[in-house]
Amino acid sequence: MSALDSNDSRDDALWELLGHAREVEPSPWFVRKVLRAVERDAAPQPSWWQVFLRTIVPVGACAALAVLAIVGIQSSPAPTAATADIEFETIQNLDLLVANYESSLWLDPSSSSR
């Protein structure tokens, strides 16, 4: 019975010591911080294939689209001499085209039938 008596005397001394300690007021956000830490630790970590699908695949798709766009822009045909000749003839006859446009029946309000 002496072992029980010694534990009781230690417990009494501990409670007496705790009775002299100052009270600490917990933070109003204590519960929120504890729950956030528990949720963070309990959150499952994504596996390597989930990380691959979420990051590498979209980045690779964007890079492929960029390469296709650059190749498409660079492989567009340059204007040929025939196209340049047609444009030159259009520029030469620009005054005739403007005169024809101004005298068009569609723009002349006096020629409309009612």
Commentary on this structure:
70% of the residues lie in helices and 0% in strands. It is mostly helical. It has a domain at 77-108. The chain is elongated, with a radius of gyration of 44 Å. The mean pLDDT is 79.
Task: Looking at this protein, list some descriptive labels.
single chain; 114 residues; 5 helices; elongated
* Envelope shape: elongated
How large is the count of helical segments?
A: 5
Number of separate strands: 0
Helix content: over 70%
**Could you list the spans in which at least 5 consecutive residues all have pLDDT below 50?**
none
Name the structural class.
Answer: mainly alpha
Radius of gyration over C-alpha positions, nearest whole angstrom: 44 Å
**Helix and strand run:** HHHHH
Distance between the termini: 126 Å
User: Biggest sheet: strands, sense, closure?
Assistant: none
As a percent range, the share of strand residues is under 5%
Helix-strand blueprint:
Elements: H1 2-20, H2 30-42, H3 48-74, H4 81-92, H5 94-102
Quick structural gist:
The chain is an all-alpha fold and 114 residues long. It has helices spanning 2-20, 30-42, 48-74, 81-92, 94-102.
